[in-house]
Amino acid sequence: MTDAGNGTVKNEERQRARGAGPGALVDAEIDEVPSAEPTRVGGRRALAYLGLCLVLIGLNLRTVFSSFSAVLPEVTSGAGLPGWAVVVLTTVPVTLLGVFAPLAPVLARRFGAERVLLGAMAVLTAGLLMRPVDVPGAGHLPALLAGTAACGAAIALCNVLLPGLVKRDFPHRLGLMGGLYTTAICASAALGAGFTYPVFSATGQWTSALWFWAVPAAVVLLLFLPVAIRQRHGQHKAVHEGVNVWRSAMAWQVTIFMVLQAMMSFSVFAWLAPILRERGVDGGTAGLMVSASIVLQMLGSLFAPALAARLRDQRAINTVAALMTGSGFALSIFGPQELIWVWTGLLGLGQGSLTAVALTMIMLRTRDGHTAAHLSGMMQGVGYGVGSTGTLMVGQLHQATGSFAAAGMLFLAVGLLAAVFGYRAGRNRYI
């Protein structure tokens, strides 16, 4: 390809990254033949209704993580959970994000993306209802494990299919819908962190605090039901095009960057509230601080992709975001407590920027939609699967040492590694 051609492709990719928002809006169905048709709607109002449903689905995709951590001490004592169970419950849902991600395109080809999303929301609702159930003779642990696993599997399918639906059905409103969708996902984590403990305080029951989050999921399930069931779906097959990303050194650098940011990101959802409470912050304030940190994540995720797309390369922004996140996490653990709001704010702004630029690499390091979709699948499968070890290591270090100080040192190291791989992934090269 000529230099002029390279420049044209690069400009197109920058425009896509700017318009699609931090989620990069990669279409998981791009390899389908014939191409998946847009969702059938009856007019502008019906299209607006579809957009509302997709945003509301996004608003339910992180409450599972942040709600559990907000009342973790109460659940641990109330359900009599052993230490290993706490570690598993914080790790399994993230691991399943990677395990089930490759199944989403396969299911979409067989049943249609809309119906798979509907099924995923049904499983998510069932999992949220199951989590607090007391099984006679066995206690709460079996239902907690099964419900949490169901939620993780359902969210994995939504994570993969939802961006493609937004991109496919709103091609002329990608900036608006991409921003609403990604903001809704961040907001879901903030809502779970901020409202779970107040529900516990009002009811005195941790089971009620967890059951509460099945209500919005069930409402969205009912709202999306008429849209999904009237969709027709023909026979499709997969035709793989684009570069083999598994053999690309650049793809692995981007993917390891994603792994390291996922280690920190989901550790924030799982452990930041318990970290703050161990430092003497009361449950309500800890939830509020986590929510404020996630709101700053939203700000970072809104501005970082646009800045990254305007730069000649992304080495500097990737490095700075990684160092901000690692240091913010560590300082939240052992920094001066009178500045704890500053540390959690630094963590939030860094983490939001880091997640956003990692996902933006999908567009900026690929030349076509097929390669971008394959890179996205690689990043989600490996990124979430291996990235779940972050929550696992934090739990194990806490069990072994009795404090979170070792986890602070761990995430200083993870932040430094993320800076190294972010620098490598940020070079102006294509996969």
Describe this structure in words.
With 431 residues, the protein is mostly helical. Helices cover 77% and strands 1% of the residues. The protein has a single domain, classed as MFS general substrate transporter like domains (Growth Hormone, Chain: A, Up-down Bundle). It contains 18 helices and 2 strands. The chain has a two-stranded antiparallel sheet. Helix 17 runs antiparallel to helix 18.
Structural class: mainly alpha
Largest sheet: 2 strands, antiparallel
- Sum up the overall morphology in one term: globular
CATH architecture: Up-down Bundle
Instruction: Return Rg in Å.
Output: 21 Å
From N to C, what is the helix and strand string?
A: HEHHHHHHHHHHEHHHHHHH
Total number of helical segments? 18
- The proportion of residues in beta strands is under 5%
Structural domain count? 1
From the 3D structure, determine the CATH topology: Growth Hormone, Chain: A
Q: Quickly name the level 1 CATH class.
A: Mainly Alpha
Overall mean pLDDT stands at: 83
* CATH homologous superfamily annotation: MFS general substrate transporter like domains
Summarize the structure.
This protein is mainly alpha-helical. Helices cover 77% and strands 1% of the residues. It has one domain: MFS general substrate transporter like domains (Growth Hormone, Chain: A, Up-down Bundle).
